[in-house]
Amino acid sequence: MGYVELILAIIFEIIATAFLKLSNNFTNVWYSFGTIISYCLCYYLFSLSLKSIALGVAYATWCGVGIIFTGIVSYLLWHESFPLPKLIGIILIIIGVVLCNLVSSHH
Questions:
Q1: Which domain holds residue 71?
Q2: What's the pTM?
Q3: Distance between first and last Cα of the chain
């Protein structure tokens, strides 16, 4: 069940981060409220995932997948640049997350 909670935590992190940008430095009340609620849900679900997933693996997965999908969201919604070095970095993050999960499953 830990990975289900971790995936939900990642989804809420991505939503919270998108809302944070839309909040315009917390001047837009609704997006600010969405940011706070989404981050609270994110951290709660992340804490639940730690019952069955090692902290180092859970955190690496949470951060790595969050970075990847936040980059995709920023590209799609705000047309932020996605140059080759950034793409290479994201590929390296994916490799790192996969390695962390593979090593963890063998111990």
A1: 2-105
A2: 0.86
A3: 19
